[in-house]
Amino acid sequence: MKILAPLGSLQEVEMLAENGAEEFYCGVTPMEWIEKYSPGVWLNRRNPFAGVMSLKELQNIVNASHSYNIPVYLTLNAPYYVQEQYPMLLELITRCTQDIGVDAFIVSDIGLMMAMKENVPAAVIHVSSLAAPLNTGSVQLYRELGAERIVLSRSVQIEEIAELKAAAGDIELEMFILNDGCVYEESFCHTTHNRAGAFCAQSQWEYIALPTDGNVSLNHTERQALENQVTDYREFVWFVNDCGCQLAQDGLPLGPCGLCALPELYRAGIDSLKIVGREGSPYRKLASVQLVKAVVEQVRAKAADDEIQSFARKVRNQPSFCDSGLMCYYR
Amino acid sequence: MEFAIAIQSLRDMKLTERPWKPFSYQNEIETQTQKAFFEAWETVYGKKRMPDRLYFGSEFCQYRLTSSIAVMKALEYSRRNGLAFTFVTPYVHNVKFHALTTILTELQQEAVKVKEKVEVVVNDWGVYSHIRKQFPMLCPVIGRLLNKVVRDPRIADYYDNENAPPQAINVVKGNGLVSEWFGRFLESSDTVRLEFDEAIQGFGQETESHALSFHYPFGCVASGSACMVGFMDSDKKDKFRGDPDCKQQCQRYTFELKNRQFTHMTHRIFQKGNTAFYAHNRTLIETGLRRAMQAGAVRVVYSPRLPV
């Protein structure tokens, strides 16, 4: 069970490697892409400036990471790619595989998986959570398409893992452990954060409750219950969106967290734990890696479940947030 | 052009008879979209006509998956009324994947019995793959959730505008399913039909090689496991996640979402249960129907209700 950390620049490699990162992932958006498609068409799920901007810097990142024996995975997980984008994508994958030494590509579009297998068979595919691996049918499909790892969707819960693991066979499973949730299923959110920000950002919206059927009206009690529900929903989204994108007073990141579930994830045979937040500050990444590492070490030392859970709560140092239950990835 | 009507509950089956006729329990937005749809229809096609096909089931919520008894009743209803039948399915976690498999097994048996394939709209690649392997008498159609067209009413107009960055337009008006490589994946079987939401920014790609369906008058913005009204009566810590014992509160409560930042949006937004929708306006519907008329073989799918 490895700790997979996000990378935003070469300068972060040493800091994160020395503090517990065991795998890295990052994005790259070459200037040629931006010139061809504009900054609004993202090469991967995050905006171009959340990743590195040149293959030269990517090369330096891979070299530095490999000097620590840490593999580097590259995100190619835009929700879809159109036909005209394929030549540039395949050239990028070829260069990254053959020349730069990228260890795997995190891919969501089945078309791109097909193209990679045909054109760059040496390229290793990790299926992104954006491909909605939710059930044994999808896990089997992605395995047949040649994936070597599947990143399970954020909404997959602990009790579902055993069947998915059995379906995965000898390929790896990765799950989310820290930061940046999604209110909707990532694969089925058809919006863009470009220009508009997250669709789920609560500051944008006012909710007006209506009866689903037009021939009934909502009574006072129902309206009050729905108002309370909206208040709770806004609070839930606040947690999902990293508690208003804050760091805690002690510098630790706030937001979705699966640390208490680590013993179960370990026993379930999860291979990799994803820390989210490529676009976060170096300090946020460092604090995230240290936080996860501290709890993973307890698991590796075979501490009892309740000891691990109370340790996780202690190092998080946010008892009221933990008690709310709304900050938990796995609940 | 084939005209299909999409129904999510047995209760609504009567709406297939005269879908243009107001019904007693339709809400204000459904009244408005029904009027817009059939006015646009009359402008483009002239006379109203009865549907050719029934779509039955929820595309968006696994907890709205009906029983196989209900599916069989809907199939029987469609036969009795001279409608072709399509079973519509949502994305599913494993428990509902098994429940769906039970329904698909019964549909397969029925299809074998009458020696006629049954069409199934899939919104989950796992379900698609499972049908391909296990149910040769079921014919999967690629549902609109698997068709990753941008559907963001906040910025869609920006990309249907002469000031939009020209190099971005082909991508924003495009989709991945019609790429050569996705085509190879789909063509390894006999999948022929792709489903679309009518996109506010329009479409920019040639899609003639596929059979196409377009859904009206509600497009999906986003769908997920955090239902806005499920678990209403539970403690806060248990809310906003999938509910195996869902009480179907979405069938009682809906929200309209008013945006404080993008105040000039041309389409209203609603959230029903776990899914946000944009309601098509008259212009968008008419644009789509005109394109359908020119293309000829297109299927138009009309949902009288916000489709959860």
From TrEMBL, chain A:
Pfam families: Peptidase_U32. InterPro entries: Peptidase_U32, RNA/ubiquinone_mod_enzymes. This is Peptidase, U32 family.
Automatic annotation (TrEMBL), chain B:
It comes from Aneurinibacillus aneurinilyticus ATCC 12856. It comes from the Bacteria. This is Uncharacterized protein.
